[in-house]
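Marked as duplicate of an earlier ticket. Keeping the data here for the record.
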Amino acid sequence: MNNLFVYCEIEDGVIADVSLELLTKGRSLANQLKCKLEAVVAGYRLDGIESQVFPYGADVLHVADDERLYPYASLPHTSLLVKLFEEEKPQIALMGATSIGRDLGPRVSSALGSGLTADCTALEIGDHEEKKEGKVYKNLLYQIRPAFGGNIVATIVNPDCRPQMATVREGVMKKEIVSPDYKGKVNHLDTSGYLSESDFVVKVIERHIEKAKTNIKNASIIVSGGYGMGSKENFDLLFDLASVIGAEVGASRAAVDAGFADHDRQVGQTGVTVRPKLYIACGISGQIQHIAGMQESSMIIAVNNDCNAPINSIADYVITGEVETVIPKMIKYYKKNSK
C-alpha cells in the first residue's frame, strides 16, 4: 500500500537499461518517502529474473510469467497493471519513455484516472501549497520535464489522484547497484486473475526488430556536430576525428534535419541522452533541447566560430574558430602526440 512501483521492460530475458535506471532513482525516492520499492515484470520464462532486479534495491518483485505476455501487446499488459495497481494502490508508478512506456503509460493512467507526465528528465520529492484552497500537500512527486519546445523546464505535481505516474527518458538518470546481495520478496502473480480472453483479441503473428546501427548511448567519447558543420561533406571530418580517438559520432537535431547525419545519432531532447567521459561539440550553438541530452558529460569541449554560442557556457574548454580548420588540426596533433 502506498509504495513506489517501477514497470520493468524486458527483451530476450534482459531488463532494459531504462528500467534499471528507474529502479536506482526509485530506491532513492522510496528512501525519502520511507516506503518500499516494488518492481513489476511481465513476460515469459522469467525464472531467475530477480537476480537482475534485486541488486538495484527492489523490496518486492511482482512476476507475471505467461506465454501470452511475450512479446509485448497493449491490452494484456494494460489489464495486468491496472488490476495490480487497483489492488496495491501505489502512490507513485514509473516507467520508461520508450515505445512501450509511451503506449502503456497513458492507457494505465487513463483507466485509473490518475494522470501522467511524459518524458520526464528529473524526479524529486517536495511539498506543494494550493493557496486558493489553503491546502499544503506533503511529499509529492515533482515531475520535471522540458516544455514549450524545451524553452522552459516545467515542474508538474499531482496532489490528489493516485498513483502519481510518469515516464522517464532513457539515459537521464544513473544506473547504480545498491548491493549485489540485496534481497527482496518475489510475488508470482496468477495471471488468470488479471487477464481475460478479450485481452488477446489482437495477436502478434510475426515480429521484426531492427537493431540500431549505432550505439552512442554507451560511448565514452562522442564527437558531435551541428548545423554549423555546413554540409554533409564537412560532417565526414567528425568521422575522421572519431576514428582517430576511438569515439562515436553524434549530431544535433538541426544537423539531422539538414541531412548531415542519421536520426539514430541525434543527441538531445528528441534524440538520445548521453553521459560520455568526453563530449566534443563541433558547430553546435547549444540550444536547450540539445544541452538537455548531453549536459551530464564529464568533460565538454566546444568548437565554434561564435564566441557567444550558448554551449560555451557549459563547456569546460572552448575553441573559437572554423570547424573546417580546427578539426584537421586536432586530428594532426592527436596523431603526432599519441605515437
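See parent ticket for discussion. The mean pLDDT is 90.
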